[in-house]
Amino acid sequence: xxxxxxxxxxxxxxxxxRDCASRSALDLLANKWVCLxxxxxxxxxxxxxxxRRLLDGITQKMLTRTLRDLERAGLVDRAVYPTTPPxxxxxLTPLGESLGTLMSSIRGWAEEHxxxxxxxxxxxxxxxxxxxxxxxxGTAPASRxx
Length: 146
Prior knowledge:
The protein has helices at residues 22-29, 32-43, 48-54, 60-72, 94-129; strands at 46-47, 76-81, 87-92. By secondary structure, it is mainly alpha-helical. The radius of gyration is 22 Å and the shape is elongated.
């Protein structure tokens, strides 16, 4: 059995290892709101209210948390302008811009293949609703014959 080598001692990362720090980056990127916020900011810098209006369904609390997480990770820059009341604008950092391309591709894939995914789910649900039938040993795939 192949085991992925631990490259951390050689200056690399290996997200398949439980203690690898790159997993925290994956945790951040796996959030749907992160994907959508980064995608929105890839278009242009935006104020909080404009982001909230664009991201249908996000709560103020979740948007605040997502923006803070992205700022902490160095992906988003928060600029406060000295006006009354203060205006705050969010933009992607160069690191965030490099992620923006990837997130746009993921969002595009989801939009393009949503029909395929929904059809697959419907087929799965239909099969799962049927009673289980034992396989005929003569017709079972070779991997199941032992």
